[in-house]
């Protein structure tokens, strides 16, 4: 799905191989700092998906909410770059069909992280979600004007991504997220901590609660987490997140959450876990894959770029299919009904094509499928 844009970027890389690329200046810190450290002025707002104890502790309030009467609904939004417009369309079309539930937990990875706050706040935010993906604000994300390879460790500047985040993460949004967080609902975003090589899970509702009270550190962190989760390594620069540790202030390096997980439903430390008490009430798990998951035949070109592009695409799809299978098994063991939506394999999808016409086409595809009741399938059924 990324073949054409990746080929263009790889071609540019070949032309710049002899150039001195920029770097990010860093100071060393030790594992104790990392393990104990917390974002400046904010504790208990994130944990590692590999930390079983932290995952169980953070799951307590979710478990309590699940024990309330009524369905327990979880929405997970995957990465996929520009293909995130598809997931945005699915949400809006789901609203139009009159069948979209309120979600107790919403999670986002990469482009899914940018969608997640809107999805968390409900259907009344659909118009703003559509605008974020289709009003042309994404046009300059991948362009020669944005090349920064000589200044930093990426081909393109993160400025367009950060501008998008700062435009749509308004005081109104932060207050609304904080209000829903206070009710026990949870908004979670995944980034990849390159220093630990682990998935970091951020409690965005807890951060928004502080930001809504005027805490500028929390506001900056909310922005940084969303930008980091969408920062494809090499394409956009990593985000340095300041932490307070026993030895003083240090900075962690965070990139696209999709490096370590295609979407987030269950911390990896709990993926094999089964609730000993069983399911108390019905639960529903909805996973939106902003991309394609099926294998596609194509004679691979015999050059370096063709091999790299095809290999990346195969690796990405295989990882997503394996993660879907593991999540489906977890859901079945723990009383959750799971449904999946993805871009049909026969459709054209280019994850790095941020042009407005492509984004609108993907949005409309998702909208039409959801409005017609055709967007969702059982994970055991073949991909469309």
TrEMBL record:
Family annotation (InterPro entries): Acyl_Trfase/lysoPLipase, NTE, PNPLA_dom
Pfam families found in the cross-reference section: Patatin
Taxonomic superkingdom: Bacteria
Listed name of the protein: Patatin
Keyword Hydrolase: yes
UniProt signal peptide: 1-26
Motif position, DGA/G: 256-258
Residues at the catalytic site: 110 (nucleophile), 256 (proton acceptor)
BP GO annotations: lipid catabolic process
Record field: transmembrane: none
């Amino acid at each position: 799905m990324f073949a054409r844009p990746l080929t263009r970027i790889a071609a540019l890389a070949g032309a710049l191989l002899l150039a001195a690329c920029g770097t990010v200046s860093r100071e060393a810190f030790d594992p104790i700092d990392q393990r104990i450290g917390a974002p400046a002025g904010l504790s208990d707002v994130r944990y590692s998906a590999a930390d079983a104890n932290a995952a169980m502790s953070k799951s307590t309030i979710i478990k309590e909410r699940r024990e309330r009467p009524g369905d327990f609904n979880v929405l997970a939004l995957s990465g996929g770059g520009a293909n995130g417009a598809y997931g945005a369309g699915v949400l809006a079309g789901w609203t139009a069909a009159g069948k979209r539930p309120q979600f107790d937990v919403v999670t986002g990875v990469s482009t899914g992280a940018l969608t997640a706050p809107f999805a968390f706040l409900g259907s009344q935010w659909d118009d703003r979600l559509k605008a974020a993906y289709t009003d042309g604000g994404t046009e300059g994300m991948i362009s020669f004007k944005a090349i920064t390879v000589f200044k930093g460790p990426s081909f393109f500047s993160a400025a367009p991504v950060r501008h998008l985040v700062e435009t749509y993460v308004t005081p109104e949004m932060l207050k609304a997220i904080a209000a829903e967080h206070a009710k026990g609902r949870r908004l979670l975003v995944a980034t990849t901590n390159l220093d630990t090589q682990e998935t970091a899970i951020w409690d965005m509702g807890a951060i928004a609660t502080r930001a809504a009270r005027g805490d500028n550190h929390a506001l900056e962190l909310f922005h940084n987490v969303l930008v980091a989760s969408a920062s494809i390594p090499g394409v956009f620069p990593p985000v340095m997140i300041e932490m307070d540790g026993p030895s003083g202030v240090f900075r962690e390096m965070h990139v696209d959450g999709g490096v370590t997980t295609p979407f987030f439903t269950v911390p990896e430390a709990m993926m094999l876990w089964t609730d000993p008490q069983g399911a108390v009430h019905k639960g529903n798990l909805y996973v939106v894959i902003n991309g394609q998951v099926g294998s596609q035949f194509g004679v691979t070109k015999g050059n370096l770029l063709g091999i790299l592009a095809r290999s990346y695409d195969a690796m990405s799809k295989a990882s997503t299919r394996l993660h879907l299978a593991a999540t489906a098994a977890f859901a079945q063991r723990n009383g959750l009904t799971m449904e999946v939506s993805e871009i049909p394999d026969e459709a054209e999808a280019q994850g790095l094509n941020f042009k407005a016409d492509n984004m609108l086409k993907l949005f409309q595809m998702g909208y039409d499928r959801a409005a017609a009741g055709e967007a969702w399938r059982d994970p055991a059924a073949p991909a469309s």
